[in-house]
Amino acid sequence: MEEREFFNETTEAKKARLTCPYCRAEAEYGVQWVVRRKKAAPPPRADETDRARFAKAASYMVRRDDKIACTNPRCRKMFEISGLQSVVSL
Q1: Residue 90 has pLDDT above 90, yes or no
Q2: Which tens digits make up the pLDDT trace of 67-81?
Q3: Are 23 and 70 a contacting pair, CB within 8 Å?
Q4: I need a surface site. Which of 12, 42, 53, 56 has the fewest CB within 10 A?
Q5: Would you say residue 1 has pLDDT above 80?
Q6: Is the dihedral of CA 40, 44, 49, 50 positive or negative?
């Protein structure tokens, strides 16, 4: 059984305060996250090993965006999001 079958997957935008490394302008950016919430019960066709994996599974978020464009009209360069975690437990 695949891990995808244990979770409901949605996409959310969360605000983050970031600083552009090129122009040093600080602004709020909408960072995209994939939110995986654990289902209430394991799938009906799960065997004992799948049920054990399901019991250990926990809800979490994965950052979808790796780079983001600066909001400063004079800069507009793409920079990597290094100040945020890439995986967050819920």
Answers
A1: no
A2: 999 999 999 999 999
A3: yes
A4: 56
A5: no
A6: negative
What span, in angstroms and rounded, lies between the C-alpha atoms of 61 and 56?
16
Domain boundaries, the chain: 3-85
Question: Taking the mean position of all CA atoms in its chain, how far away is CA 3?
Answer: 16
Tell me the DSSP string of the chain.
--GGGGEEEEEEEEEEEEE-TTT--EEEEEEEEEEEEEPSS--TT--HHHHHHHHH---EEEE--SEEE---TTT--EEE--SS-SEEE-
Averaged pLDDT, 39-68: 92
Q: Which pLDDT value is given to residue 43?
A: 87
